[in-house]
Amino acid sequence: MAYSGEPILVEDLLFKPKHSLIDQSLHSTMGATTTNGDGFGIGWYGEGAEPALFKGTEPAWNDRNLREIAGQIRTPLFFAHVRASTGSPVQRSNCHPFRRGRWLWMHNGALRGFHDVRRDLVTAIDPGLFPDLEGSTDSETLFYLALTFGLTDDPLAAVARAVGFVEDVGRAHQVENPVQMTVATTDGESMWIFRYSSERQSRSLFFSTEIDKLRALHPEVEVLYHLGDETRFVVSEPLRDLPGAWNEVPESCAALVRNGADELREFQPISPV
Fold first, then answer.
1. In the chain, what's the furthest Cα-to-Cα distance?
2. Residues in Cβ contact with 96 at an 8 Å cutoff, skipping those fewer than 6 apart
3. What is the pLDDT of residue 19?
4. Is residue 133 part of a domain?
5. pTM reported for the whole predicted model
6. Is residue 273 part of a domain?
7. Of 26, 29, 44, 131, whose Cβ has the fewest other Cβ atoms within 10 Å?
8. Taking Cα atoms as reference points, which of 192, 158, 198, 149 lies closest to residue 175?
9. How many CB atoms lie within 10 A of CB 225?
10. Cα distances (Å, whole numbers) of residue 95 to 12, 53, 182
C-alpha cells in the first residue's frame, strides 16, 4: 500500500479500513498467497532528510510495536508492505520497503529463476551502489538495477531498462517469463507505479478515484471529508468495498502520481544493450 496526500496517522491507513493491509496479511483475496506472514515494513517521510523505516520479521498482525508506533506517526507520504517470501530468508534486510537516500521502493511478484541469474544481475549493479545492497532478495536487486540505470533522473526509463535487462539475462539462462512485478517507488514528492509481467498476467494493482468525485458518489461516507483533495492510494487489493473507489491499473502500464494531474502510460521494457 502507498499513500500520498494530507498528513494522516499511520494507524488510520494500516488498521482502520475494513480490508486493511493488516487484514490482508492474514486474508488476502487477490494475492498469490492468502497469508503474508514473512515480515513487514513501513516507510514514511517526516522531519529528517531521508525517509524513516520500521521493519520486522514477525507477521504484521502479531507485532505490538507496529500498532504502538502507528498511532504516533503522522505523514503525507507512506509506504507499507507485508511479505510472503519467494525463497529468500526471513530477515529484516529482506523486508520492504527498501531505501537509498530519499528513495523508497516496494515490489510484489518475483524475478523467476533468481537463484540461477542472481550473479549476472548483481554484478551489473553500479560499483558505487553495490556496497549499500543489504539483503538477498530479487526485489532489492531490481531496485538497485533501476538505480544503476538512472532511477533518480528518469524513473520510467530506468525501470524499463532494468526490467529489459532482467528479461535479457533470464532468457539467456532459458528462464521463461523472467519478470512478474507490481512496483511502487518514490522520492518523497512524486510516486511512480508499475504493473508488468513477461507473460502479461500481472499481479493486481489499483489506484483510488479522486476524492472529490468519491464524495459526490458517496456523500454518506464520513471519512472522505477528512481526506484532502490530492489524496491518492495505491494498493494491491482494495481497502474496502466502496463502489467507484478503485481503478485497476491496466496491464503493462506505469503511472506518475503527484499533486495535480496524474499520468498513466504504457510500459514496455527497454533492452539496455
1. 56
2. 41, 79, 81, 83, 105, 106, 107, 139
3. 67
4. yes
5. 0.93
6. no
7. 131
8. 198
9. 9
10. 22, 10, 16
